[in-house]
# Entry
Amino acid sequence: MRYENKVVIVTGAGSGNGRSIALRFLEEGAKVVAADLNLAGAEETVSLAADPSRGLAFKADVTSKQDVEQMVAAAIETFGGLDVLVNNAGIVAFTPFLELSEEEWDKVHNVNLKAPFLCSQAAAKVMIESKTAGRIINITSVEAHRIVSSSGHCQPHYNSSKGGLNLLTKAVALELAPYGITVNSVAPGVVATPFTEKGLQNPEVKQWVLDRVPVGRVAVPDDIANAVLFLAQPESEYITGTTVFVDGGWTIA
Ligand code: NAD
# Structure
């Protein structure tokens, strides 16, 4: 098994992409901290594994420095180290620019951009101390690279948070390269998760998406998880500061 004896933290592991990422690592032998604000969701994720004893459901608000430090400490206390961090927790809200409140702006940036900063810094410190050739993988979006407007208006706060995370990935990759730690992004297109469920139930929105995706289908969470596992493997040590688009060709069409 590719990830036997590796310790992985996945944030937002109680649903959608995060659940699939956590389960794929568990299938491949890793020990996984499935962290989420929604503890019941994280517990359900762990319970779905063939061997739930290698999973730890952990309640954390990743926008809280204290919670993040406790999450990293839990990985070390429970499983003895930390090899891989996946910054997956993210939120979106479809609010037109002129109606966007300061509170909503802050909330989206706190989860999508500040949390990966807090988690990456805490994880990198323990990886460096333990001389671990760690992997940090950030889940961004095609919306870090282009503006998507299926409903007539955009999501400027989401775009700026994910665009910021794209550049944070590159800057941190540069700083951590001397320690053998790689930092990369996975940028999904549209994935069928609770995040997009409502939109995809509308046939017009679904067709709008399919018209833009050359491979002709909406992504499933395992498409995202497979890219994350590729970047996390030891053989990917020369890949850093880059983005793997998992968008069915959307951004090249
Ligand atoms: P989801 O809503 O199904 O899951 C997100 C999870 O994050 C939830 O379990 C939620 O409880 C958790 N979470 C939210 N705030 C948190 C916090 N403060 N602390 C800890 N956990 C928190 O969404 P998803 O579709 O699985 O999205 C996962 C990631 O993929 C996000 O970063 C999202 O931006 C990205 N993404 C999704 C799509 C898509 O089409 N679904 C496309 C591009 C990018």
Summary: The chain has a mean pLDDT of 96. The beta strands are 7-11, 31-36, 55-59, 84-87, 135-139, 182-188, 243-246.
